[in-house]
């Protein structure tokens, strides 16, 4: 289990706000969003989940953070960080709690990783961040402890509550009673906090993500996926459509069954309906019953059986009065025009009878909100007598490619130019998802053109997908313009293909849209869309996006370097023993689009995984129905 799955984050925002015009620090405007939103963007990839400690504006904090828990102090009177820490430890669902303040928007991207390593290595109760600061009145740098940047074991809660019960409130004094591991961080600015409006204004320069430290060169794939899932919430927009227009749409409300299904007790077989009391006993060996009528589906039989009687019945027909069991006709020992003989032990009392409400009871949930409707779902809804259904409106997604070298198919291809394939790949994947697509064509490698395109897309769409322009090249402007228009959450991942990938939110006036900047290489576009854009868009639709991983045997050895997640194109088939096996499509370069067209799956090689030997089992993501 990776370390971040063991950690819950807690953002401490529980102060009075008296230093900054009686406005909570976390809610202070900061570069088109708020301080706490910048903290969330840094914290969320490092933890399994997070909560906010606040004593005012609880609803506002919850809105900004996507409905995460907002926890007021258990103690009265604004008792400082320890009061927030107390409620955080009481709430914490994991073994470890990571605390950060709401007014430090530059907190390190590797904070949790390094504190966790020290906590484990030193068998400590708490790990604290430390920096060396040079003060004007000191000749040498001085050690500075940062007690609100802490990773704690939840087992210290009883000690904290005893300390608070004694009337003490100083955080540093309480830490002295614990086993403390100190972790030295080189970037002192990452721990700077905002205490005045003047300090806030001084930080208003554009925030480009801090360079990755030697400890964390790029986000893990799981961390990035977790961050996206934490930030994106479903749109609140629905409409009612005829059932025939609902395929591949997402349910906006639970479908509640207005009837019992089946509506009445009925037969599961063609055969003979009878009383269980008339089944033969071991002493009888067999019994012969008189056939007094016939029951068809849709034409119930009005007769009521008496002892020794039975009724010929068809599948789906209502059970006649007095009958509780059905003998399948092929199990009868003998059949004549007016009688049927049954042997002992052929069926049990109550056999082959379907009860009213057995599939669905009236008033129960037939299909849950968030279900992506497939053909069988339409049939189920129709079986309830419902002619229309409430679904989420189609997601509006704008997309474009970037690059001076790109030409549209059909145009002359000049020297040094290539045809734009990415836009058509993205178009197909968006269409498969049922999105309302807005094709914005090709955008030049020009900051003004890109800025204008992103603003236009933001005005029209719920989400924006771009390809190209997110690496570290001189003409790669997307991530920098994204940072100036809104908030950039990450732009570099430890994966192949698809290392440069930007995610964030942009704003233009009253409009906002999530943006995923895909790489420029054709294979990286397809792989990155599947892993990041598809789940994000489905989350916006309110749908679940499970990625079903299969296991298959590698036909040949596969080279893999630990330290990044790799996605290689493969062909899965059944081996001679009937078990699934997979082979690669050949060269795995991120520009070889043919390798995607030949493949029917992606072979997933985990972050810490090394070389794979022939015969080893590997994880596989199938393409069918996905891309």
TrEMBL record:
It is found in: Cytoplasm. Pfam families: MoCF_biosynth (PF00994), MoeA_C (PF03454), MoeA_N (PF03453), NTP_transf_3 (PF12804). Its main location: cytoplasm. The keyword Magnesium applies. Its EC number is 2.7.7.77. Mg(2+) binds at residue 103. Its cofactor is Mg(2+). It is an enzyme of class 2 (transferase). PROSITE patterns: MOCF_BIOSYNTHESIS_2. One of its GO terms (molecular function) is molybdenum cofactor guanylyltransferase activity. It catalyses: Mo-molybdopterin + GTP + H(+) = Mo-molybdopterin guanine dinucleotide + diphosphate; adenylyl-molybdopterin + molybdate = Mo-molybdopterin + AMP + H(+). Residues 398-539 form the MoaB/Mog domain. InterPro entries: MoaB/Mog-like_dom_sf (IPR036425), MoaB/Mog_dom (IPR001453), MobA-like_NTP_Trfase (IPR025877), MoCF_biosynth_CS (IPR008284), MoeA-like (IPR038987), MoeA_C_domain_IV (IPR005111), MoeA_C_domain_IV_sf (IPR036688), MoeA_linker/N (IPR005110). Pathway: Cofactor biosynthesis; molybdopterin biosynthesis. GTP binds at residues 12-14, 25, 53, 73, 103. Catalyzes the insertion of molybdate into adenylated molybdopterin with the concomitant release of AMP. Transfers a GMP moiety from GTP to Mo-molybdopterin (Mo-MPT) cofactor (Moco or molybdenum cofactor) to form Mo-molybdopterin guanine dinucleotide (Mo-MGD) cofactor. The N-terminal domain determines nucleotide recognition and specific binding, while the C-terminal domain determines the specific binding to the target protein. Belongs to the MobA family. This is Molybdenum cofactor guanylyltransferase. It comes from Duganella qianjiadongensis.
């Amino acid at each position: 289990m990776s370390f971040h799955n063991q950690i819950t984050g807690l953002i401490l925002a529980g102060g009075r706000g008296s230093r900054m015009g009686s406005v909570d620090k976390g809610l202070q405007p900061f570069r088109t969003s708020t301080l706490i939103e910048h903290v969330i963007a840094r914290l969320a990839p490092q933890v399994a989940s997070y909560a906010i400690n606040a004593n005012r504006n609880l609803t506002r904090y919850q809105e900004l953070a996507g409905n995460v828990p907002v926890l007021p102090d258990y103690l009265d009177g604004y008792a400082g960080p320890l009061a927030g820490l107390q409620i955080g430890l009481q709430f914490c669902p994991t073994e470890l709690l990571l605390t950060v303040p709401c007014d430090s928007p530059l907190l390190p991207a590797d904070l949790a990783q390094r504190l966790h390593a020290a906590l484990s290595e030193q068998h400590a109760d708490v790990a604290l961040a430390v920096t060396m600061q040079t003060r004007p009145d000191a000749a040498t740098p001085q050690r500075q402890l940062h007690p609100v940047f802490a990773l704690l074991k939840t087992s210290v809660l009883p000690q904290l509550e005893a300390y608070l019960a004694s009337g003490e409130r100083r955080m540093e004094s309480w830490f002295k009673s614990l086993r403390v591991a100190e972790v030295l961080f080189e970037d002192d600015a990452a721990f700077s906090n905002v205490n005045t409006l003047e300090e806030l204004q001084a930080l208003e320069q554009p925030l480009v993500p801090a360079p990755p430290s030697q400890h964390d060169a790029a986000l893990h794939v799981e961390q990035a996926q977790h961050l996206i899932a934490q930030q994106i919430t479903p749109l609140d927009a629905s409409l009612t459509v005829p059932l025939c227009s609902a395929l591949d749409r997402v349910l906006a409300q639970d479908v509640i069954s207005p009837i019992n299904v089946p509506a009445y007790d009925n037969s599961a077989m063609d055969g003979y309906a009878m009383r269980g009391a008339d089944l033969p006993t071991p002493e009888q060996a067999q019994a012969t019953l008189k056939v007094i009528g016939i029951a068809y589906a849709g034409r119930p039989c009005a007769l009521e059986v008496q002892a020794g009687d039975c009724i010929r019945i068809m599948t789906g027909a209502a059970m006649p009065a007095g009958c509780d069991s059905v003998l399948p006709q092929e199990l009868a020992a003998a059949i004549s025009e007016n009688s049927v003989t049954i042997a002992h032990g052929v069926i049990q009392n109550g056999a082959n009878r379907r009860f009213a409400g057995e599939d669905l009871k009236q008033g129960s949930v037939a299909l849950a909100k968030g279900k992506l409707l497939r053909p069988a779902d339409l049939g189920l809804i129709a079986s309830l007598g419902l002619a229309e259904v409430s679904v989420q409106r189609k997601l509006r997604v704008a997309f474009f490619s970037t690059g001076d070298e790109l030409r549209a198919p059909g145009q002359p291809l000049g020297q040094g130019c290539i045809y734009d394939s990415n836009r058509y790949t993205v178009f197909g994947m968006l269409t498969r998802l049922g999105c309302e697509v807005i094709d914005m064509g090709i955008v030049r490698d020009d900051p003004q053109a890109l800025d204008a395109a992103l603003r236009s897309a933001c005005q029209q769409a719920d989400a924006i997908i771009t390809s190209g322009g997110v690496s570290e090249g001189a003409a790669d402007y997307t991530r920098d313009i994204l940072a100036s228009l809104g908030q950039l959450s990450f732009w570099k991942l430890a994966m192949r293909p698809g290392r440069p990938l930007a995610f964030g939110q942009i704003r233009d006036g009253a409009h906002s849209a999530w943006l995923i900047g895909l790489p420029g290489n054709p294979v990286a576009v397809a792989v990155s869309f599947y892993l990041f854009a598809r789940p994000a868009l489905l989350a916006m639709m309110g749908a679940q996006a499970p990625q079903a991983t299969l296991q298959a045997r590698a036909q040949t050895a596969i080279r893999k370097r630990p330290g990044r997640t790799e996605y290689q194109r493969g062909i899965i088939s059944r081996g001679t023993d009937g078990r699934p096996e997979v082979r690669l499509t050949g060269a795995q370069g991120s520009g070889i689009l043919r390798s995607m067209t030949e493949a029917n799956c992606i072979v997933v090689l985990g972050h810490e995984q090394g070389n794979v030997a022939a015969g080893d089992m590997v994880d596989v993501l199938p393409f069918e129905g996905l891309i």
